[in-house]
Write a structure and sequence with these properties.
Layout lengths: L1 H15 L7 E5 L10 E6 L5 E6 L10 E9 L3 E9 L16 E17 L4 E7 L24 E6 L7 E3 L2 E3 L2 E6 L1 H8 L10 H7 L3 E5 L7 E7 L7 E7 L6 E6 L6 E8 L4 H6 L8 E5 L4 E6 L9 E13 L15 E6 L5 E2 L2 H4 L10 E5 L2 E9 L1 H8 L8 E5 L8 E5 L10 E8 L2
Antiparallel strand pairs: 1-2, 2-26, 3-18, 4-5, 4-13, 5-12, 5-16, 6-11, 6-13, 6-14, 7-8, 7-12, 9-10, 14-15, 17-25, 18-24, 19-23, 19-26, 20-21, 20-24, 22-23
Protein backbone atom coordinates (compact mmCIF):
# COMPACT_ATOMS: atom_id res chain seq x y z
CA UNK A 1 0.00 0.00 0.00
CA UNK A 2 2.88 2.31 0.72
CA UNK A 3 4.32 1.78 -2.77
CA UNK A 4 1.03 2.53 -4.51
CA UNK A 5 0.53 5.74 -2.54
CA UNK A 6 4.07 6.86 -3.33
CA UNK A 7 3.51 6.48 -7.04
CA UNK A 8 0.30 8.48 -6.94
CA UNK A 9 2.02 11.24 -4.99
CA UNK A 10 4.96 11.31 -7.37
CA UNK A 11 2.63 11.63 -10.33
CA UNK A 12 1.00 14.78 -8.95
CA UNK A 13 4.38 16.26 -8.11
CA UNK A 14 5.49 15.70 -11.70
CA UNK A 15 2.52 17.71 -12.91
CA UNK A 16 3.34 20.77 -10.85
CA UNK A 17 7.13 20.71 -10.93
CA UNK A 18 9.25 21.70 -13.90
CA UNK A 19 12.35 19.54 -14.13
CA UNK A 20 15.47 20.36 -16.07
CA UNK A 21 17.13 17.72 -18.27
CA UNK A 22 19.79 17.03 -15.64
CA UNK A 23 19.47 14.73 -12.61
CA UNK A 24 18.18 16.30 -9.43
CA UNK A 25 17.07 15.21 -5.98
CA UNK A 26 13.69 16.31 -4.63
CA UNK A 27 11.83 15.68 -1.39
CA UNK A 28 8.62 14.07 -2.63
CA UNK A 29 5.25 14.24 -0.92
CA UNK A 30 6.22 15.79 2.43
CA UNK A 31 2.92 17.65 2.57
CA UNK A 32 0.79 14.70 1.45
CA UNK A 33 2.27 11.68 3.21
CA UNK A 34 2.83 10.94 6.88
CA UNK A 35 6.32 11.81 8.11
CA UNK A 36 7.30 8.14 8.16
CA UNK A 37 6.62 7.89 4.43
CA UNK A 38 8.93 10.68 3.21
CA UNK A 39 10.78 9.61 0.05
CA UNK A 40 13.88 11.19 -1.42
CA UNK A 41 12.80 10.83 -5.06
CA UNK A 42 15.36 11.33 -7.82
CA UNK A 43 14.31 12.32 -11.32
CA UNK A 44 16.31 11.86 -14.51
CA UNK A 45 15.56 11.96 -18.21
CA UNK A 46 19.15 11.40 -19.36
CA UNK A 47 19.51 7.66 -18.87
CA UNK A 48 21.25 6.23 -21.93
CA UNK A 49 19.12 4.43 -24.52
CA UNK A 50 20.20 2.49 -27.59
CA UNK A 51 17.67 2.23 -30.41
CA UNK A 52 17.99 -0.09 -33.39
CA UNK A 53 15.81 -1.37 -36.24
CA UNK A 54 15.61 -5.18 -36.35
CA UNK A 55 13.71 -7.65 -38.50
CA UNK A 56 10.56 -9.10 -37.01
CA UNK A 57 10.39 -12.86 -36.53
CA UNK A 58 7.52 -14.74 -38.20
CA UNK A 59 4.28 -14.02 -36.34
CA UNK A 60 1.35 -16.35 -35.75
CA UNK A 61 -1.44 -15.19 -38.03
CA UNK A 62 -3.89 -18.10 -37.81
CA UNK A 63 -5.51 -16.39 -34.82
CA UNK A 64 -6.12 -13.14 -36.69
CA UNK A 65 -9.60 -11.70 -36.93
CA UNK A 66 -8.77 -9.62 -40.01
CA UNK A 67 -6.47 -10.44 -42.89
CA UNK A 68 -4.73 -7.99 -45.25
CA UNK A 69 -4.71 -8.59 -48.99
CA UNK A 70 -2.75 -6.31 -51.28
CA UNK A 71 0.59 -4.86 -52.30
CA UNK A 72 2.28 -1.67 -51.09
CA UNK A 73 5.16 -0.05 -52.95
CA UNK A 74 6.64 2.32 -50.38
CA UNK A 75 9.54 4.67 -51.08
CA UNK A 76 10.81 4.16 -47.51
CA UNK A 77 9.78 0.58 -46.67
CA UNK A 78 10.13 -1.07 -50.08
CA UNK A 79 7.54 -3.58 -51.31
CA UNK A 80 5.16 -5.43 -49.00
CA UNK A 81 2.79 -8.17 -50.14
CA UNK A 82 -0.02 -9.63 -48.03
CA UNK A 83 -2.04 -12.69 -49.01
CA UNK A 84 -4.66 -14.96 -47.44
CA UNK A 85 -4.85 -18.73 -47.20
CA UNK A 86 -8.20 -20.07 -46.07
CA UNK A 87 -10.11 -23.30 -45.69
CA UNK A 88 -13.88 -23.74 -45.81
CA UNK A 89 -16.13 -25.99 -43.78
CA UNK A 90 -19.38 -27.93 -43.83
CA UNK A 91 -21.58 -28.79 -40.86
CA UNK A 92 -22.08 -32.42 -41.85
CA UNK A 93 -23.25 -34.58 -44.69
CA UNK A 94 -24.42 -32.57 -47.72
CA UNK A 95 -27.11 -33.74 -50.09
CA UNK A 96 -27.87 -31.25 -52.84
CA UNK A 97 -29.60 -33.87 -54.96
CA UNK A 98 -28.50 -36.16 -57.74
CA UNK A 99 -25.19 -34.75 -59.00
CA UNK A 100 -26.15 -35.69 -62.56
CA UNK A 101 -28.96 -33.15 -62.43
CA UNK A 102 -27.08 -30.25 -60.80
CA UNK A 103 -25.78 -27.43 -63.00
CA UNK A 104 -23.64 -24.50 -61.90
CA UNK A 105 -24.69 -20.90 -62.55
CA UNK A 106 -21.79 -19.20 -60.74
CA UNK A 107 -19.37 -19.59 -57.85
CA UNK A 108 -18.62 -16.52 -55.71
CA UNK A 109 -16.08 -15.95 -52.94
CA UNK A 110 -17.31 -13.38 -50.42
CA UNK A 111 -14.98 -11.82 -47.82
CA UNK A 112 -16.36 -8.93 -45.72
CA UNK A 113 -14.20 -5.83 -45.39
CA UNK A 114 -12.64 -4.82 -42.08
CA UNK A 115 -10.87 -1.63 -43.19
CA UNK A 116 -7.78 -0.87 -45.24
CA UNK A 117 -4.32 0.66 -45.09
CA UNK A 118 -2.61 2.84 -47.66
CA UNK A 119 -4.59 3.97 -50.69
CA UNK A 120 -6.30 2.38 -53.67
CA UNK A 121 -6.06 5.40 -55.95
CA UNK A 122 -4.24 2.96 -58.19
CA UNK A 123 -6.12 -0.30 -58.72
CA UNK A 124 -4.77 -3.78 -58.11
CA UNK A 125 -5.35 -7.21 -59.65
CA UNK A 126 -6.50 -9.93 -57.25
CA UNK A 127 -6.04 -13.61 -58.08
CA UNK A 128 -7.42 -16.74 -56.44
CA UNK A 129 -5.70 -20.14 -56.55
CA UNK A 130 -6.79 -23.55 -55.33
CA UNK A 131 -4.63 -24.97 -52.53
CA UNK A 132 -3.32 -28.47 -53.28
CA UNK A 133 -1.51 -29.19 -50.00
CA UNK A 134 -3.44 -30.25 -46.92
CA UNK A 135 -3.99 -27.64 -44.21
CA UNK A 136 -4.97 -28.56 -40.65
CA UNK A 137 -7.96 -26.73 -39.27
CA UNK A 138 -6.57 -26.77 -35.71
CA UNK A 139 -2.90 -25.94 -36.40
CA UNK A 140 -1.04 -22.69 -35.76
CA UNK A 141 0.33 -21.07 -38.91
CA UNK A 142 2.82 -18.23 -39.10
CA UNK A 143 3.35 -15.34 -41.48
CA UNK A 144 6.14 -17.08 -43.44
CA UNK A 145 4.15 -20.26 -44.11
CA UNK A 146 3.12 -21.20 -47.65
CA UNK A 147 1.15 -24.07 -49.15
CA UNK A 148 1.32 -25.55 -52.62
CA UNK A 149 -1.33 -24.32 -55.05
CA UNK A 150 -2.47 -25.19 -58.54
CA UNK A 151 -0.64 -22.62 -60.71
CA UNK A 152 -3.75 -22.04 -62.82
CA UNK A 153 -5.91 -19.39 -61.21
CA UNK A 154 -9.54 -20.21 -60.45
CA UNK A 155 -10.62 -16.58 -60.13
CA UNK A 156 -9.52 -13.01 -60.66
CA UNK A 157 -10.67 -9.48 -59.94
CA UNK A 158 -8.98 -7.07 -62.31
CA UNK A 159 -8.62 -3.33 -61.67
CA UNK A 160 -9.77 -3.87 -58.10
CA UNK A 161 -10.60 -0.86 -55.93
CA UNK A 162 -12.47 -1.78 -52.73
CA UNK A 163 -15.81 -0.20 -51.91
CA UNK A 164 -15.72 -0.23 -48.13
CA UNK A 165 -19.12 1.40 -47.71
CA UNK A 166 -21.81 -0.25 -49.77
CA UNK A 167 -23.15 -3.74 -49.15
CA UNK A 168 -25.33 -5.79 -51.48
CA UNK A 169 -28.60 -7.71 -51.40
CA UNK A 170 -28.25 -11.33 -52.44
CA UNK A 171 -31.61 -13.09 -52.94
CA UNK A 172 -33.08 -10.98 -50.16
CA UNK A 173 -30.09 -11.43 -47.85
CA UNK A 174 -28.21 -8.29 -46.83
CA UNK A 175 -24.44 -8.72 -47.16
CA UNK A 176 -21.99 -6.23 -45.68
CA UNK A 177 -19.48 -4.46 -47.93
CA UNK A 178 -17.24 -7.25 -49.15
CA UNK A 179 -14.58 -8.35 -51.57
CA UNK A 180 -16.55 -10.50 -54.03
CA UNK A 181 -14.72 -12.55 -56.64
CA UNK A 182 -16.40 -14.79 -59.15
CA UNK A 183 -14.53 -18.07 -59.47
CA UNK A 184 -14.36 -20.49 -62.37
CA UNK A 185 -17.57 -22.31 -63.24
CA UNK A 186 -15.70 -25.60 -63.55
CA UNK A 187 -14.76 -25.37 -59.85
CA UNK A 188 -18.39 -24.76 -58.95
CA UNK A 189 -19.50 -27.73 -61.03
CA UNK A 190 -16.83 -29.91 -59.44
CA UNK A 191 -18.24 -29.00 -56.01
CA UNK A 192 -21.78 -29.86 -57.13
CA UNK A 193 -20.58 -33.19 -58.45
CA UNK A 194 -19.62 -34.23 -54.90
CA UNK A 195 -23.25 -34.23 -53.75
CA UNK A 196 -24.15 -37.49 -51.98
CA UNK A 197 -20.54 -38.63 -52.39
CA UNK A 198 -17.77 -39.46 -49.92
CA UNK A 199 -16.26 -35.96 -50.08
CA UNK A 200 -19.47 -34.46 -48.67
CA UNK A 201 -19.90 -36.95 -45.82
CA UNK A 202 -18.01 -34.99 -43.12
CA UNK A 203 -15.97 -31.84 -42.61
CA UNK A 204 -12.71 -33.79 -42.54
CA UNK A 205 -13.55 -35.53 -45.81
CA UNK A 206 -14.57 -32.22 -47.40
CA UNK A 207 -11.36 -30.42 -46.36
CA UNK A 208 -9.26 -33.32 -47.60
CA UNK A 209 -10.97 -32.98 -51.00
CA UNK A 210 -11.20 -29.18 -51.13
CA UNK A 211 -8.08 -27.99 -49.31
CA UNK A 212 -8.72 -24.26 -49.54
CA UNK A 213 -7.96 -21.11 -51.51
CA UNK A 214 -5.15 -18.59 -51.75
CA UNK A 215 -6.14 -14.95 -52.33
CA UNK A 216 -3.25 -12.77 -53.48
CA UNK A 217 -2.63 -9.46 -55.24
CA UNK A 218 -0.42 -9.16 -58.32
CA UNK A 219 3.01 -8.08 -57.07
CA UNK A 220 4.03 -6.86 -60.53
CA UNK A 221 1.75 -3.81 -60.33
CA UNK A 222 4.42 -1.23 -59.55
CA UNK A 223 2.10 1.57 -58.44
CA UNK A 224 0.01 -0.47 -55.96
CA UNK A 225 -0.19 1.31 -52.60
CA UNK A 226 -2.65 -0.44 -50.33
CA UNK A 227 -3.90 -3.47 -48.45
CA UNK A 228 -7.56 -4.14 -47.83
CA UNK A 229 -8.47 -5.99 -44.64
CA UNK A 230 -11.01 -8.78 -44.87
CA UNK A 231 -12.84 -10.30 -41.92
CA UNK A 232 -13.15 -13.99 -41.08
CA UNK A 233 -15.20 -13.49 -37.92
CA UNK A 234 -18.61 -13.78 -39.54
CA UNK A 235 -19.45 -17.32 -40.64
CA UNK A 236 -22.51 -16.00 -42.46
CA UNK A 237 -20.74 -13.49 -44.74
CA UNK A 238 -17.28 -15.13 -44.98
CA UNK A 239 -18.13 -17.84 -47.46
CA UNK A 240 -17.88 -19.52 -50.82
CA UNK A 241 -21.31 -19.76 -52.46
CA UNK A 242 -22.25 -21.93 -55.39
CA UNK A 243 -25.35 -20.79 -57.30
CA UNK A 244 -26.99 -23.55 -59.32
CA UNK A 245 -30.13 -25.06 -60.77
CA UNK A 246 -31.55 -28.50 -61.45
CA UNK A 247 -34.20 -29.84 -63.80
CA UNK A 248 -36.99 -28.66 -61.51
CA UNK A 249 -35.74 -25.47 -59.84
CA UNK A 250 -33.64 -22.37 -60.50
CA UNK A 251 -32.07 -19.84 -58.17
CA UNK A 252 -30.62 -22.47 -55.83
CA UNK A 253 -27.51 -21.83 -53.77
CA UNK A 254 -25.32 -23.40 -51.11
CA UNK A 255 -22.55 -21.78 -49.04
CA UNK A 256 -19.34 -23.26 -47.70
CA UNK A 257 -18.51 -21.06 -44.73
CA UNK A 258 -15.32 -20.05 -42.93
CA UNK A 259 -15.60 -20.70 -39.21
CA UNK A 260 -14.16 -22.43 -36.17
CA UNK A 261 -13.70 -25.72 -38.03
CA UNK A 262 -11.62 -24.14 -40.77
CA UNK A 263 -8.26 -22.36 -40.71
CA UNK A 264 -7.24 -19.02 -42.18
CA UNK A 265 -3.90 -17.24 -41.96
CA UNK A 266 -1.96 -14.35 -43.49
CA UNK A 267 1.27 -14.67 -45.41
CA UNK A 268 3.57 -11.64 -45.70
CA UNK A 269 6.60 -10.95 -47.84
CA UNK A 270 8.88 -7.92 -47.76
CA UNK A 271 11.45 -6.66 -50.22
CA UNK A 272 13.57 -3.90 -48.69
CA UNK A 273 16.25 -3.74 -51.38
CA UNK A 274 17.22 -0.21 -52.40
CA UNK A 275 14.87 1.28 -49.77
CA UNK A 276 16.09 3.49 -46.87
CA UNK A 277 14.95 0.91 -44.35
CA UNK A 278 17.59 -1.48 -45.72
CA UNK A 279 20.29 0.90 -44.49
CA UNK A 280 18.79 0.87 -41.01
CA UNK A 281 18.70 -2.93 -40.93
CA UNK A 282 22.32 -3.05 -42.03
CA UNK A 283 23.53 -0.34 -39.63
CA UNK A 284 26.46 -1.31 -37.40
CA UNK A 285 25.97 1.63 -35.02
CA UNK A 286 25.21 0.88 -31.39
CA UNK A 287 22.28 3.28 -31.67
CA UNK A 288 20.59 5.11 -34.55
CA UNK A 289 18.90 8.49 -34.83
CA UNK A 290 15.98 7.15 -36.87
CA UNK A 291 14.38 3.76 -36.34
CA UNK A 292 11.51 1.91 -38.01
CA UNK A 293 8.59 -0.35 -37.25
CA UNK A 294 6.14 -2.09 -39.53
CA UNK A 295 3.24 -4.47 -39.00
CA UNK A 296 2.76 -7.62 -41.01
CA UNK A 297 5.91 -9.24 -39.61
CA UNK A 298 8.07 -6.49 -41.06
CA UNK A 299 10.46 -4.70 -38.71
CA UNK A 300 10.44 -3.46 -35.12
CA UNK A 301 12.41 -1.07 -32.94
CA UNK A 302 14.66 -2.57 -30.28
CA UNK A 303 15.46 -0.50 -27.18
CA UNK A 304 18.15 -1.25 -24.62
CA UNK A 305 19.33 0.60 -21.49
CA UNK A 306 23.09 -0.03 -21.34
CA UNK A 307 23.71 1.98 -18.15
CA UNK A 308 20.69 0.89 -16.14
CA UNK A 309 22.83 -1.15 -13.74
CA UNK A 310 24.84 1.97 -12.88
CA UNK A 311 21.91 3.22 -10.81
CA UNK A 312 22.60 0.54 -8.23
CA UNK A 313 19.98 -0.71 -5.78
CA UNK A 314 16.91 1.45 -6.41
CA UNK A 315 13.15 1.43 -6.11
CA UNK A 316 11.54 2.51 -9.39
CA UNK A 317 8.65 4.83 -8.55
CA UNK A 318 7.78 5.85 -12.10
CA UNK A 319 9.30 5.04 -15.49
CA UNK A 320 7.75 6.45 -18.64
CA UNK A 321 9.17 5.90 -22.11
CA UNK A 322 8.47 8.72 -24.59
CA UNK A 323 8.54 8.06 -28.33
CA UNK A 324 8.20 10.79 -30.98
CA UNK A 325 7.38 10.94 -34.67
CA UNK A 326 8.39 14.39 -35.96
CA UNK A 327 6.58 15.88 -38.94
CA UNK A 328 9.63 15.23 -41.13
CA UNK A 329 9.09 11.48 -40.67
CA UNK A 330 5.49 11.50 -41.88
CA UNK A 331 4.69 10.35 -45.40
CA UNK A 332 4.53 13.61 -47.39
CA UNK A 333 1.90 12.09 -49.71
CA UNK A 334 -0.28 10.96 -46.75
CA UNK A 335 -0.59 7.46 -48.22
CA UNK A 336 0.97 5.57 -45.33
CA UNK A 337 -0.23 6.91 -41.99
CA UNK A 338 1.44 6.08 -38.69
CA UNK A 339 -0.26 3.63 -36.29
CA UNK A 340 -2.93 4.87 -33.93
CA UNK A 341 -1.40 2.72 -31.20
CA UNK A 342 1.94 1.07 -30.50
CA UNK A 343 2.84 -1.67 -28.06
CA UNK A 344 5.98 -1.83 -25.93
CA UNK A 345 7.04 -5.44 -25.35
CA UNK A 346 10.10 -7.22 -24.08
CA UNK A 347 12.38 -9.58 -25.91
CA UNK A 348 12.99 -13.13 -24.79
CA UNK A 349 16.31 -14.90 -25.36
CA UNK A 350 15.35 -15.75 -28.96
CA UNK A 351 14.14 -12.30 -29.96
CA UNK A 352 10.43 -13.09 -29.72
CA UNK A 353 7.88 -10.59 -28.47
CA UNK A 354 6.62 -11.05 -24.90
CA UNK A 355 4.18 -8.86 -22.95
CA UNK A 356 5.68 -6.89 -20.05
CA UNK A 357 4.22 -6.78 -16.54
CA UNK A 358 3.13 -3.16 -16.96
CA UNK A 359 0.87 -4.10 -19.85
CA UNK A 360 -1.02 -6.52 -17.62
CA UNK A 361 -0.95 -4.51 -14.40
CA UNK A 362 -4.09 -2.85 -13.04
CA UNK A 363 -2.05 -0.37 -11.00
CA UNK A 364 -0.64 1.66 -13.90
CA UNK A 365 -1.78 3.26 -17.14
CA UNK A 366 0.23 1.38 -19.73
CA UNK A 367 -0.17 3.87 -22.59
CA UNK A 368 0.64 3.48 -26.28
CA UNK A 369 -1.99 5.71 -27.92
CA UNK A 370 -0.95 8.24 -30.56
CA UNK A 371 -1.19 11.83 -29.33
CA UNK A 372 -0.61 14.98 -31.36
CA UNK A 373 1.52 17.52 -29.50
CA UNK A 374 3.66 20.59 -30.14
CA UNK A 375 7.38 20.74 -29.31
CA UNK A 376 9.07 24.13 -29.78
CA UNK A 377 6.28 25.18 -32.12
CA UNK A 378 6.57 22.05 -34.26
CA UNK A 379 3.77 19.50 -34.57
CA UNK A 380 4.68 15.90 -33.85
CA UNK A 381 3.11 12.70 -32.59
CA UNK A 382 3.92 11.15 -29.25
CA UNK A 383 3.52 7.66 -27.80
CA UNK A 384 4.28 6.98 -24.14
CA UNK A 385 4.53 3.78 -22.12
CA UNK A 386 4.82 2.93 -18.47
CA UNK A 387 7.59 0.36 -18.00
CA UNK A 388 8.25 0.75 -14.26
CA UNK A 389 7.43 -2.80 -13.21
CA UNK A 390 9.56 -4.34 -15.94
CA UNK A 391 12.54 -2.12 -15.08
CA UNK A 392 12.19 -2.93 -11.38
CA UNK A 393 12.21 -6.65 -12.19
CA UNK A 394 15.43 -6.22 -14.15
CA UNK A 395 17.12 -4.13 -11.46
CA UNK A 396 16.33 -6.55 -8.67
CA UNK A 397 17.63 -9.45 -10.74
CA UNK A 398 14.26 -11.12 -11.16
CA UNK A 399 14.51 -11.01 -14.95
CA UNK A 400 17.22 -11.14 -17.60
CA UNK A 401 17.22 -8.04 -19.77
CA UNK A 402 17.14 -8.84 -23.48
CA UNK A 403 15.78 -5.41 -24.38
CA UNK A 404 12.41 -3.94 -25.28
CA UNK A 405 10.55 -3.85 -28.60
CA UNK A 406 8.22 -1.29 -30.11
CA UNK A 407 5.70 -2.83 -32.49
CA UNK A 408 2.49 -1.75 -34.14
CA UNK A 409 -0.65 -2.68 -32.23
CA UNK A 410 -2.06 -5.95 -33.62
CA UNK A 411 1.04 -6.28 -35.80
CA UNK A 412 0.17 -9.82 -37.00
CA UNK A 413 -2.91 -8.49 -38.78
CA UNK A 414 -2.06 -4.93 -39.88
CA UNK A 415 0.43 -3.51 -42.37
CA UNK A 416 0.91 0.01 -41.00
CA UNK A 417 4.35 1.47 -40.44
CA UNK A 418 6.24 4.38 -38.86
CA UNK A 419 9.59 6.12 -38.77
CA UNK A 420 10.53 7.09 -35.22
CA UNK A 421 13.06 9.49 -33.73
CA UNK A 422 15.76 7.33 -32.18
CA UNK A 423 17.76 7.94 -29.03
CA UNK A 424 20.81 9.12 -30.98
CA UNK A 425 19.05 12.33 -31.99
CA UNK A 426 20.30 15.31 -30.02
CA UNK A 427 17.13 17.41 -30.11
CA UNK A 428 13.89 17.28 -28.13
CA UNK A 429 12.44 14.62 -30.41
CA UNK A 430 14.87 11.95 -29.22
CA UNK A 431 13.41 8.89 -27.57
CA UNK A 432 13.84 9.17 -23.80
CA UNK A 433 12.94 7.67 -20.45
CA UNK A 434 11.55 9.83 -17.66
CA UNK A 435 12.56 8.00 -14.49
CA UNK A 436 11.83 8.68 -10.82
CA UNK A 437 13.49 6.37 -8.35
CA UNK A 438 14.50 6.06 -4.73
CA UNK A 439 17.96 4.96 -3.62
CA UNK A 440 17.85 1.94 -1.31
CA UNK A 441 20.48 0.95 1.25
Amino acid sequence: MKLKLSRITLFFVLVVLSFSSCKKSTLIGSDLLPASDDINGIFTDTLSLNTKTVSELPLKTSTNTKFPVGVMNDNVFGKTSASLYTQFQIAGQIDLGNPDSLFVDSLVLNLPYAGSYGKFTNSQNIYVYRVTEAMNNDSSYYSDKTFSVDPTEVGRRMDFIPDLTHGIIDDGDSIAASMRIRLADHLGQDLLNQSRGANFQSNDAFQNYFKGLLVVSDTNVSNAQGCVYVSITSTSDSRLTVYYHNYDSTGLKFSFTIGNKSNSFSHYSHNYSSAPIQNALGSTNASDSVVYLQGGAGVKTKITFPTLSNLGNILVNKAELFVYVPAEYLDPDSVYTIPTRLICLRSDSTGKNVAIQDQLSSNLIYGGAKTEIMIDGQKCYQYSFSIAERLQDIITGGATDYGFFLVSYQSPEVTDRAMIAGAKRSDKFRMKLNLIYTKLP
